[in-house]
Design goal:
Structural class: alpha/beta
Mean pLDDT: 91
Organism: Ancylomarina subtilis
Strand content: 15-25%
Pfam family, one: ThiG
Shape: globular
Enzyme class: transferase
GO cellular component, one term: cytoplasm
Strand order of the largest sheet: 5-4-3-10-9
CATH superfamily: Aldolase class I
Largest sheet: 5 strands, parallel
Helix content: 25-40%
CATH topology: TIM Barrel
Order of helices and strands: EEEHEHEHEHEHEHEHEHH
Low-confidence stretches: none
Number of helices: 9
Function: Catalyzes the rearrangement of 1-deoxy-D-xylulose 5-phosphate (DXP) to produce the thiazole phosphate moiety of thiamine. Sulfur is provided by the thiocarboxylate moiety of the carrier protein ThiS. In vitro, sulfur can be provided by H(2)S.
Distance between the termini: 47 Å
């Protein structure tokens, strides 16, 4: 399986994990390890960035995982830039998952504020991975604004409904010159495999693993699904047809 490259850094795993909703930080750490992921995101609002002994950060081994702090909870570009600068100073990383969703009910990304923040953060030297509506026009605008990858939603955050936006994600993948990471709504390993078969470069999963009866086993299931989906994409799927096509001749044995 080919490695994933974002902003010049290579990753062996194409599965990114979130760290919310786990019943304990110990369980979260065990699930992260089982997933084989190398990219882990955590909300800045959940981290005491002034405290190097913060309990969440202690369970994310910096030698195993790249930490991708996210700005979940901010409502404007101005708040996002402020949060990003705090995180860069405290956590010593310029990687950032940009999330701006002012509506607490559906947590949909604010398109205008996201684009505005991405432009400013890229100019400030951040490696920006913006969470976004599955909008192909916006994806190109974010790419032109300096995003290192785009993260279109499959369906609303935490909904577990899968790839409701699949046809728009398909267009985003077709047009993108930067990695496309499907984020939000992936609720089953089959959803992740579908995204990877479509050509997504990676997927980000949180709720589906954190709320499973066995998060560690579910993390392993997602790892295998992402690997299978990617290998299938690289192998190239067969063309879909509207009628049957026999896999072997139907007539020759009748001519004996």
């Amino acid at each position: 399986m080919q490695q994933l490259t974002i902003a010049g850094q290579e990753f062996n795993s194409r599965l990114f994990l979130g760290t919310g909703k786990f019943s304990s930080n110990q369980l979260m750490e065990e699930a992260l390890i089982a997933s084989g992921s190398e990219m882990v995101t955590t909300a800045l609002r959940r981290v005491d960035i002034q405290n190097p002994e913060d309990d969440i950060l202690k369970h994310i081994d910096p030698n195993r995982f790249r930490l991708l702090p996210n700005t979940s909870g901010v409502r404007t570009a101005k708040e996002a830039v402020f949060a990003a600068e705090l995180a860069r100073e405290a956590l010593q990383t310029n990687w950032l998952k940009l999330e701006i969703h002012p509506d607490p009910k559906y947590l949909l990304a604010d398109t205008i504020e996201t684009l505005k923040a991405c432009e400013e953060l890229a100019k400030k030297g951040f490696i920006v991975l913006p969470y976004m509506q599955a909008d192909p026009i916006l994806a190109k605008q974010l790419e032109e604004a300096g995003a290192a990858a785009v993260m279109p939603l499959g369906s609303p955050i935490g909904s577990n409904k899968g790839l409701i936006t699949r046809e728009f994600i398909r267009i985003i993948i077709e047009q993108a010159n930067i990695p496309v990471v499907v984020d939000a709504g992936i609720g089953a390993p089959s959803h992740a495999a579908e995204a990877m078969e479509m050509g997504a470069d990676a997927v980000l999963v949180n709720t589906a693993i954190a709320v499973a009866n066995d998060p560690i086993k579910m993390a392993e299931a997602f790892k295998l699904a992402v690997q299978a989906g990617r290998i299938a994409f690289e192998a190239k799927l067969g063309t879909q047809l509207n009628q049957a096509e026999a896999s072997s001749p139907l007539t020759s044995f009748l001519n004996l």
